[in-house]
Amino acid sequence: MIEPDRTEWQVRCTFNAFCKRVLKNEAINIFNERKQRQAKEMTFSDLTPQEENELYTLDKQYEGEEGQSFQVAGKKVTPKLLAEALRTLPKEKRKTVLLYYFFDKSDVEIAELLNIPRSTVQYRRTSSFKRLKRFLEEHADECSD
Amino acid sequence: MNVVINTNVENNERGLLPYPIILAANKGEPEAMKVVVLHYGSYMTSLSMRKLRDEQGITYWGIDEDTRERLRSKLMQSVLDFRI
Description:
The complex is a heterodimer of chains A (145) and B (84). Chain A is 62% helix and 6% strand. Chain A is mainly alpha-helical and 145 residues long. In chain A, strand 1 and strand 2 (75-77) form a beta hairpin. Chain B is built from four helices and two strands. Chain B starts with 18 loop residues before the first helix and ends with a helix. Chain B has a two-stranded antiparallel sheet with strand order 1-2. Chain B has helices at residues 19-26, 30-39, 41-47, 65-81; strands at 49-53, 59-63.
C-alpha cells in the first residue's frame, strides 16, 4: 500500500469528501434494504385461506346453541336466539337498537346520526322491545331443569 | 441536494474540519469524534428524511431515527478507518 503523502489542506478536503461519501453510500444501502424488505412483505388479502387460518384462533364461546345462555322466568335465551330475534326487526329499528346498546348513544345522538326526529327514535326503540319480547316468548325453549 | 459546493477552492474553508481535529478523531479521541459527528449532523439528518405514516394513516416527511442512528455509527466506524 502506497502511503498517501498529502498536505494538510488536501487531507482536510479528502476527509470531508470521504465522510460525505460514506454517509451517502450508507444511506443508499439502507434505502435498498428497505425496498427489498417491502418487496417481500405481503398483505393479508394475498394469503391463501389456509395460511390465513394459521394466524389466529377463534373464541368458541358464541358458536351454536350450546354456547352461553341466560335463564329468565323458566325460559332459556341463547345468543343465537337473540341474534335471530334482532334479525326479525326491520332494518331501521334494528339500527336504532344496536346504536343504543352497543355504541352507548342517546336518543338525541341517534336522531342526529340518522337524520330523523328524536321522538321517532324513541318510538322505534320501544316498539322494537315489544317485537323482541313477543319473538323471544314464542321461540325460547322451556328450561330443561 | 444538487447544489455543487466546491470546497477545493483555495482558502474556502466552508465545510472543512480543522486538521488537528481530523487527526485526533482518526486516532479515536472521543472529544474530536464528537466534533466530527456534530459537523456532519445536519447532513445525516437530511439523508434520513423520508415519508412516514402515523397511526391515523397520514403521511408526512420526517426524520427516520433508525436511519440516523445507523448513519452515525457508520460514520464513526469509517472515521477510524480513514487513512491520512
